[in-house]
Amino acid sequence: SATLAERGGNWVSVAWGSFRDLSKRAYARYEPSINDLMDDVQYLLLDEEYDVENADIRERLHPYEQAGQSHVPAIYRRLFTPNPLDIPDFYIPRPACEERICQAIRDWDIGRPNTILVHGDRGIGKRSMMRHLVEGELRDFAPRITRMIVDENASNEMAIAGSIGSRFSETTPRTFAELRRMIRALPQKPIILIENGEKLFTRTREGIELCRNFLAMIDSTADRALWIILMGTPAATLLETAIELSDYFTHSVFIEPFTFEQIREMIERRHRVSGFQADFERARPRVYEWVISPIESSEIVRDPKSAFFERLGDVSHGNPLLGLEYWLESIEVTG
What we know:
alpha/beta
C-alpha cells in the first residue's frame, strides 16, 4: 500500500510539473495577445482614447519646427513644410469653400457690400487656401488685395487702427472713426485680408467690446472695402457667443478638416517629387478589432499603406499641418 501511495504521489507530481511547464510556455507564447486583449477590454469599458489628446494637439500646433525631424534629409523636410516653395501642384483644393469666397468677391466688385469670415482650426489651411486663390482664381483682383497680419501687441483701438491704416497712408489713424474716413476716401476700393483675426481682441470685457467696435467699423465700410478676416475656431466660437460674430459678415466660411484620403493625397504629391521610395510596415490589428471586424482587420493586414494613412487621418484629426508633422516623425530612413 505504501508503494502504491508513493507511486501515486509521484505520478501526480510529474503530471502537475508537466502541466505547469506547458502552461508557462503557452502563456509566454500568447502573452502579447493576452496583454492586448486586457488593454482592449479596458478601452471598451472605460472608453479611453488611444487617439492624440487635445492638449497634445494644441502643443503640436505651436509654430511649425523641423528640428525634431533632423534624421530626415533636409531636401525631403523642405517638401513637407506647409507651403513648400509655393508649388501649386501640392495644393489640395476645397472647391465648395473656394467657390463661395470667389463668388462673394465677384458680387462685391459689382456693388454688393459683402464681408467674409473664414474660420477653422489652427493649421487647417486658411492662409494656404487664400494664397492659392489670390495667385489663381482671384489673380485679376491681386493688385487691390492688401494682406496683413495685425501686430501682436495691438491691444487697443489706436494700435489696431494704426496697424491697418499705415498700409494705406502715411498719416496713421488713431481711432476706428479716423480709419473709417480714411478707407472711404481711398481712390480705389481695396480688398483687405487680415490673416490673424483672433488678434483683434483680448479675452476680457474690454477686449470683446473693442472687437465689437472694430466689426461695426467693418460693417460701415463694406460698400467701399471688402474685408476678409481669417480666424481660428476657438476665437470665432467665443465671439459668436459673446457678440454674435456671424451677424457682422455676409459670408461665413468654415474650413472643414481633411478626410484621410485628402491627407494621403497631400503627402503623396510631395513624396513623389522627392524621388525617395516608401515602404510601410505590416499593420497589426488589435485582438478586439479581429473579433469585431475580422474582414476589415484582414484588409488592414493586406494593405498596410492604406491602413497607415487612415490612421494618420485619425490621429491628425484631418489637420494638414499635423498630418505633415506626423508623417515626418513616422519616417525611418534606411540605406
